[in-house]
Specification:
With 193 residues, the protein is mainly alpha-helical. Helix content is 69%, strand content 0%. The longest helix has 39 residues, at 145-183.
């Protein structure tokens, strides 16, 4: 097995492991559905699985690197590992700080608390930021043009999910969410005030 394949599989074990552990523990605790069945969530989940499968396939095939890449493998590997570690740290913080308000997709029948503390002071969507970091990490690791193009498509899908959630949160939380949006960037950045 190639080093890049092992790295991707280990990363997925940790990242998806956190995700599934949170989902299972929260569903047992609350005894209500925590996954919304809306088009954006279903398409995004399918896309994430496809992206990961393509990355694993490319890493196994050994033909993923961009022809004549000027980036040495050691540098691309180091950058990818840093991005993966950032993905894990941000993903963990997002799951931890959202607490019982964690949901996968919009569930319109449920109202959860508006969380604006912890990592949610720096990003309104840190778990989606974690996915974007994963896209970047695998693209850099494999130096793949195909993954770069898929990453751009993935960003569009993530953005679609985010805008749907924002509309829902605006309806549910009203002016409190409007104030939160003014203070905290959608993806990354410094909080305002």
């Amino acid at each position: 097995m190639h080093e890049s394949t092992s790295l991707i599989l280990l990363h997925q074990l940790l990242f998806q492991g956190m995700f599934f552990a949170k989902n299972i523990s929260l569903k047992r605790k609350l005894r209500i559905p925590i996954r919304g069945f809306n088009l954006e969530a279903n398409l995004s989940i399918a896309f994430f699985v496809f992206f990961i499968a393509v990355a694993i396939y490319l890493s196994l095939s050994g033909n993923s690197a961009i022809e004549n890449s000027t980036v040495p493998t050691s540098i691309s590997n180091l950058c990818a590992v840093v991005l993966m570690l950032a993905n894990l740290a941000i993903g963990w913080a997002a799951l931890k700080h959202l607490g019982d308000s964690w949901r996968v997709g919009v569930i319109e029948e449920q109202t959860t608390a508006l969380v604006d503390s912890g990592i949610y002071r720096c990003s309104r969507n840190p778990f989606f930021v974690a996915y974007l970091l994963m896209f970047a990490a695998y693209t850099v690791l494999l130096q793949s043009l195909a993954l770069l193009l898929l990453s751009l498509l993935g960003f569009g899908m993530v953005h679609s999910m985010v805008t749907r959630e924002e509309k829902y949160l605006q309806v549910v939380h009203g002016s409190a969410y409007s104030k939160y949006k003014q203070r905290v960037p959608r993806y990354l950045g410094r909080p305002n005030a």
